[in-house]
Give the backbone structure.
Amino acid sequence: MSYKTEKNLIFFIKYAPLLVIILLSFLTTYFMEKTHKNLFEREINRTSALYTKLNNEKLKDEIYKLYYYINQQDKESKEKLKEKIQERVYEAHAIASKIYEDNKKTKSKEEIFLLIKSALGSIIYNKGRGYFFIDDVNGVNLLQPLNRNIENQNLSQLEDVKGYKFKQTIMKTILDKTERFDTYYWYKNDSDQKAYKKISFYKYFEPYNMAIGTGEYIDEFENEIKANVIEYIQKFNENNDGYIFMFNFEGILLTHKQKELLGTDFLAKNKQENVDFIKKVINIGQNSEGFLSYYNPTVNDSKYKKTSFLKGYKEWNWVFGTGYNNGDLLEIIAKAQSDLNKKNKENF
């Protein structure tokens, strides 16, 4: 063996194991880092999916609770309205009966009727909307406090905008000597171009073979219920970290954490990107419900993505929702990334 060959062999024997060890170390570190990275990505995907799933379920649960509350208030409001106008007529009937009983032995029926008419005609309620009317069996109006011009006129053929002759229902109530609810469409005042749905209650008054009644426009009473619901949601917003935002289908903001924004028309007085966003919100509400993800314009860092669950209540033309941003998730991912880097450094 030559000296040169022997020298190369000694060099190889001396350094080859070290080179192999270094190479194996780098390969091991590379594959460990790659394995850890793959595990990290799978764990992040699993964590993100779980984070999203739990938060989405929480959003849906909160919004569905609100939906059921609104629906309950809406349904109960119609029953409450019926109870309210029925009680009013019962009160008026009791007043008329008391006047009749107290005076039937000393006054004529005509005189007593004038007392009844005066008493019931002076009762105006519901901010000037509520009053009592009296009709006889032939459809003649005997009392109409808000329009004295039609008193003593035969209105038996009067029709609402849908062609319904509601006065004949009053006449039938008298003939049947009973009481009943009725629904028709009528104008709130002489200048109205639109007729509104109205619910009325009639009760037979035997001494004069007539009916005493009252009614209320459903939208007026409904507006009071809506105002109560909005107030309830706004109080929730003020007393909790999270909040419910709500728009009507015209783009008016009804509830929000920022009170100064309430009543803002977001379709008319906002930037185009916000108008597009509100249109998406309204579209989801009009089509029932859905999730919407977007980047919160109120946060400078565009990485904070927000997800909201929205649900519409078509009966009132409302859409409402609540949401969360991915800030907590990003913090979880950042910490996991930091831990992985530390572990990889230690392994290296």
